[in-house]
UniProtKB/TrEMBL annotation:
Basic and acidic residues biased stretches: 380-401
Protein encoded by which gene: PKP2
A Pfam family annotated for this UniProt entry: BCDHK_Adom3
Entry's EC annotation: 2.7.11.-
Record keywords, A-Z: ATP-binding, Kinase, Mitochondrion, Nucleotide-binding, Transferase
Protein's name in the database: Protein-serine/threonine kinase
Chain segments carrying region Disordered: 380-402
Entry's family note: Belongs to the PDK/BCKDK protein kinase family.
A GO biological-process term: regulation of glucose metabolic process
ATP-binding in keyword set: yes
Amino acid sequence: MQAVKQPGLRLSAIASSLDFLMPFQPRYSDLLNEQHFYRNPSILELANRPVHPVTLRQLANFGHKLTEKKLLSSANFVRTELPIRLALKVKELQELNFGIANNYHLNQVYQSYCYCVNAFRRAPVINSLEDNDRFCRFISHVLDDHLIILPHLMMGSLEVSVLKSLSQEKLDKFISSMIRSRISRRVIMEQHLSLSKSFQSQSNPVLVKPQNYIGEAFEQGSIYEHLRLTADVVRSFLQSIYPGLKMPELVIEGSDLKFEFLTSHLNYIFEEILRNAFKATISAMLKRNKTLSQEELVKLTPPAVVVQVVPRKDSVAIKFSDKGGGMPKDELSKVWSFGKSPELASQYLKNFYKMSRYDLPDRPPMRDHQFWNMGAGRADLESRTDETKADSGTGERKDLDGVLGDLGRMESSKKVQKSTLLALARRPFEYTLGISLPMCKVYTDYWNGTLEIYSVQGYGSDVYLTLGKIGTNHDKLQLDRA
Ligand SMILES: Nc1ncnc2c1ncn2[C@@H]1O[C@H](COP(=O)(O)OP(=O)(O)OP(=O)(O)O)[C@@H](O)[C@H]1O
Ligand SMILES: [Mg+2]
């Protein structure tokens, strides 16, 4: 392995010689000990630098008339901005008490971010298209490596819930902030990859796109179309569980609207809300008619799920109404939280393990030099596996798969990710994770939106969603959170 002179790893070398610090230095961590945790001046110095929020209008300007100079300045922006944002999150982890961050999952996040900050520090200034190619390969590896961060955050928060080691309010604030900034970072990196790709494929030195063009992932989509697409996916999955039963209709009211949005986010939010509504509708119908025979049940028509679309000047408001029996007040008050009761958290943790087609402990964080030493393609992927294996001694690295891997790919700049959406919508109903509504809230918040539920127990629920329109809000800085 190549000698590494980065500060994080120097500290790791010191840490590994301080055996007497056990049990404070867990076996699964090369980095986390009290020295590193409380005294890492280089990371703290970075975290004190100002972040530069980017608005989608700025991203759009980059995409509108793309020149080599603009592309290189976008690359250098990512190169200098991302380590500051990562360092800020390391600081947030440091602000939890040591025992909490010492949790296996949160520790993996801590290590990943520290290594990644160091990897960004190795990035030389990007002066040419060749430099940019190398940089794009690097950020692709960062995106790939950090897919696992989301499951670690979720499982970490559930373990913290089981142990009751942090108040629900603090845990929510911390996890939401980690996820929101992750979305921001991924959108910025994906956006740069998407610009680089479209620049590569152009024959003209200046590529002129439509005025509002932001990137290929941002589609001028019709709300009606997105609603129908997601409803079809959810309905067909539900139908496969209840063959023969009639599925609820989706009735859309109000005027259709086309606006620019990150398609994968929009579909995810719609899909989770509709999944809950359809599932509740069918469950309530079966509960109300539990004395009926199978022949009688198949003749029943479940009540429709009604969606009303109300376009506004700066936003769009969408109301989803179902007659799925609603939920009790005390249950409703808990649905937004990542923190759960110890009993529920244990149940969700079990579901995580049942659903994981990957073995979390076998996917150690990538070291800083590994981000750079990998090329593209299968052979490189395999060499990365070997190197990770050699470095960590914890076995073979596996690509992240399954529901959470799909969730992690949400910010992908690839066009409508039907397969990701399908995979998410088809996750087994019995293995619920209790994360969808809190996740949707983080996504809507990212888009200057709101998400609320009003529920009448024994009758049904209304879900109110608003989403800010890109390019019309005055305060677009809010769109981007460090
Ligand atoms: N439209 C609805 N009608 C009735 N209950 C609902 C509705 N939407 C949500 N709920 C209740 O809120 C809970 C939390 O919903 P959420 O989508 O966050 O998690 P989940 O559906 O349990 O699991 P998953 O994360 O797999 O979606 C649900 O378990 C359900 O009890
Ligand atoms: Mg759900």
